[in-house]
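Worked example

This section walks through a single chain of length 281. The input is the sequence exactly as stored; nothing has been trimmed or padded.
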Amino acid sequence: MAEELARSDRRLMIDCAAVLLDLGRPEAALSHATALRLWGLPARRALLPDTLLLTHPSLYRKGKGFTVRRAPLGPGDVERRGPLRLTTPARTLVDIARQWPVEDAVVAMDAALLRKRVDAADLAAAVAAARSWPGAPRAARAAGLADGRAESPLETRGRLRLLGARLPTPQLQVEIRSGGRLLGVADAWFDAAAVAIEFDGRIKYTDPWRGRDPGQVLWEEKRREDDMRALDIRFVRLADEDVGPGWPAVETRVRALLARPGPAVRRFTATPRTRGVLRAG
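Given that input, the structure is written out below as tokens.
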């Protein structure tokens, strides 16, 4: 996984190496939000401190541009990548989940699962190891909500809104096919009502996947939506603002759609994928 750090901020890596060298404590490891950034996992800027964060088994210290927190570090909690010692992805995720809002922790966990930085067993083991630490119940809750099929932070946030509203639990990444042809993949799917939800971030249009231009993306979406609507599938498209301030209206709309059953005769199949697709440029 050497390429993981290569994709991270070079300036951050240089600063981290300098702090470790200056600290002169071989047991110390970069941790929390600093390790999260080094692993290339998403976080809201407001949650990222201005100082570098480290963990040491017996030392607490604040210095210029860094803070060392005292906490146990087991043999399996630390990895070395080049000149850097940092907490493993699983330990990093549990550390931030003990302190951050659950939604932000689940966003990071979903991304780590999607990118195969961790698996469910890794997260479960890290949660169990921290069960007596402050914030452990919060971390356990976040891990229980994590799902590696979410392909963007928006999908994670939208899924949590649906669950928080006590709506039926949707299936994720569901392939809709008719006549053997793949019509589309619903980010969230309510099977009984045949309601498909797609979460659309702005980047989908400003930086389309696989080199497509924005006009092509819009045209393809219109065609596949028309195809699905012709099969009596109801379709809801949600953007960032819809899972933020606009959520009450969205919830009302989704509830109304789910109150009506889907078509009595189905001319399509709906099959959930076991994993999400990592969309690189």
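What to look for: The first strand starts at residue 29 and ends at 30.
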